[in-house]
Q: What sequence folds into this?
């Protein structure tokens, strides 16, 4: 292993804050082409490289505030609660004041710096101060102590190990996104009719409630520890954890049992896509009362899941959620069971269902592989960043 040194972030890069142009002046935004990144753009962001945010600003907008353009490969780090969102600028960008970004110097590999800040996230977060919200100041960020290999080649070797894992993770995500798009196209070709259309012979439109049920069976709680899923623990088809916790410490809404082929669908804000398909034996899972457990009665479970997770249906349910009075935009199973669904003749249904299951088998395999890769990456990150694993023999 090469020589490592203790230094500050200011020793390995330039810390740059951001600023926000006035939103009241249209000339700061209208027709803007300059990428303006905010922490909101990184919420739920699973990649490493970012090139644009929700909005752009204009040259006038840039001149109107103290924000500055930062070069490609700047590491963006959110410094105001929530602290610790991180990404690599894929091109020149600027940010709002929610960031303390770091431009690596000539002796620092940008990818190594990305993983270094990721490794030090909790330490940086603990240094935040403030009464209204926690924030890490520029001076605090500059003074943070870190341990770094003196050799640029060793930095690159460490980054290459972690990047190889992230490259595969991001590749799987891209493949899945492409498969979802293909399925969407196949679905609209296979089912070209609207519920309001006059349907050909053999086709029919029925309420979804005739094909499925809302299941609320209380879990037996036959073990001291189980896996509890709240609404935020499933997202866009993914189960975000499988951690066992003591039953005695679970909240009151931990009640429902689930089983393979059930569909979990959050009652709160459908637009946030908190849903998943149970494709495993789930005896050890207990879910929140705010997660609908939808079970198919007369159709393939994947076909039902696919229908419920199409963007048109999500948008329709979101409108119904927002029309209800209450603390949160929320739906009930009654909203789901009223949805009209078009059923094709049996041969078409069987053909589409086969395609659907073939696609989802690939998607599920990629999700499972990513879960393993993420666990491996997170396990070796501290070992690489502490120098515990020697990478000097790795050829870049």
A:
């Amino acid at each position: 292993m090469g020589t490592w040194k203790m230094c500050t972030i200011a020793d390995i890069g330039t810390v740059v804050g951001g600023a926000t142009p006035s939103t009241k002046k249209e000339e700061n935004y209208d027709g803007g082409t300059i990428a303006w990144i905010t922490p909101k753009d990184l919420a739920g962001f699973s990649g490493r490289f970012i090139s644009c945010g929700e909005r752009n600003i204009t040259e006038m907008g840039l001149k109107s505030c103290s924000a500055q353009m930062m070069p490609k490969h700047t590491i963006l780090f959110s410094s105001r609660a929530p602290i610790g969102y991180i990404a690599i600028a894929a091109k020149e960008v600027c940010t709002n004041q929610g960031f303390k970004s770091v431009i690596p110097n000539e002796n620092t590999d940008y990818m190594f710096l990305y993983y270094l800040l990721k490794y030090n996230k909790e330490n940086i977060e603990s240094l935040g101060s403030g009464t209204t919200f926690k924030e890490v100041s520029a001076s605090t960020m500059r003074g943070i102590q870190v341990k770094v290999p003196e050799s640029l080649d060793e930095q690159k070797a460490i980054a290459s190990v972690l990047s190889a894992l992230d490259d595969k993770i991001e590749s799987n995500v891209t493949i899945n996104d492409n498969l979802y798009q293909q399925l969407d196209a196949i679905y609209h070709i296979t089912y070209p009719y609207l519920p309001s259309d006059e349907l050909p012979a053999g086709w029919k439109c029925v309420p979804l409630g005739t094909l499925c049920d809302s299941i609320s069976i209380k879990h037996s709680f036959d073990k001291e520890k189980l896996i509890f899923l709240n609404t935020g623990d499933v997202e866009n088809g993914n189960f975000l954890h499988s951690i066992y916790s003591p039953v005695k410490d679970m909240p009151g809404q931990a009640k429902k049992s689930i089983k393979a082929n059930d569909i979990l669908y959050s009652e709160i804000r459908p637009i946030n896509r908190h849903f998943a398909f149970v494709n495993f034996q789930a005896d050890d899972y207990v879910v929140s009362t705010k997660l609908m457990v939808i079970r198919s009665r007369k159709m393939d479970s994947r076909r039902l899941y696919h229908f419920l997770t199409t963007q048109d249906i999500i948008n329709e349910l979101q409108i119904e959620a927002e029309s209800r009075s209450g603390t949160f935009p929320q739906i009930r199973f009654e909203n789901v069971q009223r949805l009209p669904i078009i059923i094709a003749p049996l041969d078409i249904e069987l053909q589409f269902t086969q395609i659907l299951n073939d696609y989802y088998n690939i998607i599920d395999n990629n999700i499972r592989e990513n879960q393993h890769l993420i666990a491996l990456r997170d396990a070796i990150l501290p070992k690489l960043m502490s120098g515990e694993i020697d990478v000097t023999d790795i050829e870049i």
Remarks:
- The chain has three domains: 4-150, 152-191+344-396, 200-342.
- The two ends are 16 Å apart (CA to CA).
- The chain has a mean pLDDT of 94.
- The longest helix spans residues 346-385.
